[in-house]
Amino acid sequence: MHRFYRASAALFAVLAAILFGTPASAEIVLDYTHDTGFFSSNATAKAALEAAASDINAVLNLNLDAITDDTVTGNGGGGTVLNFDFRYQYTNPATGASVTVNDTTTPANEIRIYVGMRNLTGSTLGQGGSGGSGIAIGGVSGSGPISAAIADAQASYQHRRNEGPVIGTLSGNVSGNSFSFEMGPALGNLWFDQDTNNDGATDSAAVLNANWHFDHTTSVAAGKDDFYSVALHEMLHSIGFGGSETWDDLVSGTDWLGSEVIDLNGTGTGIIDGGGAHFAAGLMSTRITDGMAQEVVMDPTLTTGTRKYLTDLDVALLRDIGYLNASAVPEPSTWFALAMIGGGACYRRRRQRAKQSMEAAADV
Question: What NCBIfam families would the database entry show (predicted)?
């Protein structure tokens, strides 16, 4: 089944190139900086993770601007200058500690996701979310209007990245003059459970292999949790699904307000999980590869012994939150800091289709 899926994704890319050319498009880049040895020693798990990234990349057909100016200077006339120094934060996927990235320069079309393994409790299989952002303001000088310097900086900053969802907004004021910077997708983090028997200790390789199904090219063994499916789910959280400002604007209780999903599904009423970060449990759609019915990737649970692939509803929601071209098939000196916390959510196992609730995971 998965060989067909990979061939289909490749076919979509070929058709897109024929019909529309081959413009650069957004791409998830996996970062193993915090890998403590799991992925470097488990080639099968790493291949499943990278296959999930590749399958999401195949539908992210939009262009994200490069970020070349980490510090943005606003000139207000009369010698007035303000420096807005941006930074990113993400969660170390191995330890849970907050990591600050002071240099926010980012290549065009890149969304970097830091990956790792961590001991999780209960039935939680993995957690993921978008990163956070911060800003410091300094270098205030001159006698001209501060509001003009702010407006100048807002007109030239690059962190919105032109396309994609708004992950969050950095706002505040300087001497009573307000500023606001929308932040686009740039980085995220995700991690997988390495205490699958919940004994409080990191699993041995034998225990991990007994509970995880790592090989994305073979059918999922009975009683095992599919690593590829969890990777697919958590990566979508890491690029704004369930944890972005754009997402929040489109959720009203358990209703979804986005037109792409409503047009496809016929309604947005009651299709969001009560926790607010997933589709409702058990929501069905069709796989983008073969049109077969399947539970959506982005409901809160995964049944042991099964695998999920991207569905039409998963892709429609990506379009709704700002990945506008996401498509399954090509179609004709005082300093201060302000922290914005990124969203996060977790994926849980489900045995014999007994539903379990979603737990929110704070991501900093």
Answer: PEP_CTERM
Check: CB of residue 218 under 8 Å from CB of residue 206. no
| Token duo for residue 310 | 């991207």
pLDDT in tens, 217-232: 999 999 999 999 999 9
Cα-based distances in Å from 173 to 151, 181, 338:
12, 12, 11
User: Could you tell me the residue ranges of all domains in the chain?
Assistant: 2-350
Q: Please, are residues 196 and 212 in contact by the beta-carbon 8 Å criterion? A: yes
3-state secondary structure 331-360: CCCCCCEEEECECEEEEEEECCCCCCCCCE
235, 237, 262: which is closest to 247 by C-alpha?
A: 237
The string of DSSP letters for 8-60 reads HHHHHHHHHHHHH------EEEEE-TT--SHHHH-HHHHHHHHHHHHHHHTT-
Our CA dihedral for 247, 129, 356, 46, rounded to 10 degrees, sits at 130
Model pLDDT for residues 3-53, shown as the tens digit of each residue: 222 333 433 343 333 333 444 678 999 999 999 999 999 999 999 999 999
Give CA–CA dist 361/348, Å, rounded. 12
The first and second tokens of residue 21, run together, are 């050319």
Provide the whole-model pTM: 0.86
For the chain, the distance separating the N- and C-terminal CA atoms, rounded to the nearest angstrom, is 37
Contacts of 142 (CB under 8 A, 6+ apart): 76, 78, 79, 80, 81, 149
Who contacts 272 (Cβ-Cβ below 8 Å, separation ≥6)?
A: 251, 253, 254, 255, 256, 278, 279, 280
